[in-house]
Amino acid sequence: MSPRYVDPEILQERENILLDQALLLLQQQGVEGLTMDKLVKQVPFSKGTVYGHFSGKEDLLLGLCNRGMGIMCSLFARAAAFEGSSRDRMLAIHFAYLLYSRLYPMMFMLVITAKSPGITEKASEKQRAAHLQLEARLSGSIITTIEQGLSGQECMNPGNLSIEQIAFANWSAAFGSIALLSKDIEQCGVRAQLQSDQALITNISLLLDGLQWRPLMSEFDYSLTLERLKTGLFAAEMEELNAREEMTDPG
Fold it and tell me: Which residues of 173-194 are buried (b: 16+ CB within 10 A; e: fewer)?
């Protein structure tokens, strides 16, 4: 007997439902509280169907991480095409990352869990392969912007670093800054936004100034670039974010 054909759109719709419910369970009960049995109870599918999409909890967690990375890829691609200097575009990528962390805080922090050996080793080959492809796309946006800065002589490389090292320095600085600021943002809501924006700009500016990436922080007011990003390129995301925070801000 030949296997029953299932329309790819139906398969994708099922997978989206499973990921939606898994994310809801994560928000309610945390990583430890997420189990495949709980997920089965929350969806209109059989246990066999659920396991047909995700081989286990680890596969599910990596699938959620991949979903978030797909959203980031779209944001990063738009940022990398931002009109301005190469440094403006790099700042746009960092701001896109900050926006992503605010719009999808659970998936932002999930990257730490998904990177642990216990997750990746037990996840399916399908999810691992997708993860590597998404990583390459995300890195590609950053690397392309760095290459533009170097080739246009807007950026120097005083340490004779590889482009991958420069890209990693940018990514780690952004992740660390955002992760450390996230608790204050959750507690203070809208009141913490300006502080977090400025803190990110300052930290990244120190890094970019170290690469002699012009215009330097002393030569240009990058709050103007930030305002262009908020009111132009990422206006829709800012509107969504502000609407959410207005609903939750007791003030």
Answer: bbeebbeebbeebeeebeebbe
Q: Write the Ramachandran bin of 45: left for phi over 0, alpha for psi from -120 to 50, otherwise beta.
A: beta
Per-residue tens of pLDDT for the chain, all 251 residues: 445 666 788 889 999 999 999 999 999 999 899 999 999 999 999 999 999 999 999 999 999 999 999 999 999 999 999 999 999 999 999 999 999 999 999 899 888 887 788 888 899 999 999 999 999 999 999 999 999 999 999 999 988 999 999 999 999 999 998 888 876 545 444 445 556 788 888 899 999 999 999 999 999 999 999 999 999 999 999 999 888 877 766 55
Look up the pTM and report it. Answer: 0.89
Tokens 């932002």 -> residue: 108
Q: Show the tokens assigned to 136.
A: 């390459």
Q: What is the DSSP letter of 220?
A: S
Alpha-carbon distance of 247 to 236, in angstroms, equals 17
For the segment(s) 68-104+120-248, the CATH number from 1.10.3470, 2.60.40, 2.30.29, 1.10.357 is 1.10.357
Token duo for residue 237: 């995301």
Q: 239: number of CA atoms within 13 Å, CB side? A: 6
